[in-house]
């Protein structure tokens, strides 16, 4: 397991936990690549992977939330959408040759993930438990 992952981020929803772990792993790989001054194409590919896996993860959660009628879906959607637009912006800036952008992505994404999982995603888990859905 990657260093930044911690058991406290386990939601108990298998598919969600697997995707969260994958995202942490991508972030950690990206951090090592940036610190090791990997070549530009490799870093761009990893940034792209982060975007794709984030999109897939958000779609998984949102689909689940819709199916069970989660009342805070709108707020949760907004948080996901805001993160995706930030990621797209960072990727675009990196492609416009602002290489320094890549330096801030791992810290930014790690912080966001930890906060969003602890707050937003666990809010959903609390809802599922209250409805005896988990
Ligand atoms: Fe999540
Ligand atoms: Fe989420």
Mind explaining what this structure looks like?
By secondary structure, the protein is mostly helical. It has one domain: Four Helix Bundle (Hemerythrin (Met), subunit A). The protein has 4 helices and no strands. It has helices at residues 14-35, 40-67, 73-95, 101-130. The model has no long low-confidence stretch (mean pLDDT 92). Bound molecules: fe (ii) ion (FE2) (2 copies).
Features:
4 helices; binds fe (ii) ion; 134 residues; Four Helix Bundle (Hemerythrin (Met), subunit A); mainly alpha
Rg over CA atoms, rounded to whole Å, is 15 Å
Count of alpha and pi helical runs: 4
What is the name of the CATH superfamily? Hemerythrin-like
Secondary-structure-based class equals: mainly alpha
Question: Helical percent range?
Answer: over 70%
Low-confidence stretches: none
Major sheet characteristics: none
CATH topology: Four Helix Bundle (Hemerythrin (Met), subunit A)
Number of domains: 1
Instruction: Please report the total strand number as a whole number.
Output: 0
Q: TL;DR?
A:
The chain is mainly α and about 130 residues long. It has helices at about 15-35, 40-65, 75-95, 100-130. The chain is elongated and about 50 Å long.
List the helices and strands and how they pair.
Blueprint: H1 14-35, H2 40-67, H3 73-95, H4 101-130
Helix pairs in contact: 1-2, 1-4, 2-3, 3-4
